[in-house]
């Protein structure tokens, strides 16, 4: 633990200089890590959602060994009751191009974008560069429609992200990344029926004991996100699930419960 007198400055630095911030924080904390969790200690009362103008006298840095930089806030009162809320997260960077092979007009995004047209960019995308982070892209605005998972790398044409056309209307970063992956898949809704727990990729769920290709509810633990596919070998329509409980396939925006393969989201910063 180490006292930090200007948390707002630290947050801004973390957003723009990930690697530099990691090295700086390692020196301050004296611990090797890839993810830093900010701990703000307050007395009882409302918990601010942004860095305070006048920070408290004791602001500490806590460390957790996940694999990407995600900043969170832990608020503790003097009774040692602890509350957690998201403060900020390093969301990465993705660039969309109207033309193939990274040509034409471009749109750079560093966080949630619910409508490309609001940024003066038509919803036609033929190539993408993901410079950092992992992203869910949707073929309609407002995070609706078919989902595509884009991880670190270059996609010179829309077939590379398994699309059949160049429609793209919104995107957001996947906010759960890390080394600790665990998911429970349930055959029935509301976490009923046969259940299989997994911690690694599976190209064919029936090989793990599922008698059917239907997954109706899911519990995602740890700090890793998953991609579920309607077909074996990570093909077909895909759905991203982050940490949380999904009591029905409608909650991951699927029209049916068909899931036959699943893999972890890879993330690079």
From TrEMBL:
<dbReference type="GO" id="GO:0007601">
    <property type="term" value="P:visual perception"/>
</dbReference>
<comment type="function">
    <text>Crystallins are the dominant structural components of the vertebrate eye lens.</text>
</comment>
<dbReference type="InterPro" id="IPR001064">
    <property type="entry name" value="Beta/gamma_crystallin"/>
</dbReference>
<comment type="similarity">
    <text>Belongs to the beta/gamma-crystallin family.</text>
</comment>
<feature type="domain" description="Beta/gamma crystallin 'Greek key'">
    <location>
        <begin position="181"/>
        <end position="222"/>
    </location>
</feature>
<keyword id="KW-0273">Eye lens protein</keyword>
<dbReference type="GO" id="GO:0002088">
    <property type="term" value="P:lens development in camera-type eye"/>
</dbReference>
<comment type="subunit">
    <text>Monomer.</text>
</comment>
<dbReference type="InterPro" id="IPR050252">
    <property type="entry name" value="Beta/Gamma-Crystallin"/>
</dbReference>
<feature type="domain" description="Beta/gamma crystallin 'Greek key'">
    <location>
        <begin position="224"/>
        <end position="266"/>
    </location>
</feature>
<keyword id="KW-0677">Repeat</keyword>
<dbReference type="GO" id="GO:0005212">
    <property type="term" value="F:structural constituent of eye lens"/>
</dbReference>
<feature type="domain" description="Beta/gamma crystallin 'Greek key'">
    <location>
        <begin position="92"/>
        <end position="132"/>
    </location>
</feature>
<protein>
    <recommendedName>
        <fullName>Beta/gamma crystallin 'Greek key' domain-containing protein</fullName>
    </recommendedName>
</protein>
<feature type="domain" description="Beta/gamma crystallin 'Greek key'">
    <location>
        <begin position="133"/>
        <end position="175"/>
    </location>
</feature>
<dbReference type="Pfam" id="PF00030">
    <property type="entry name" value="Crystall"/>
</dbReference>
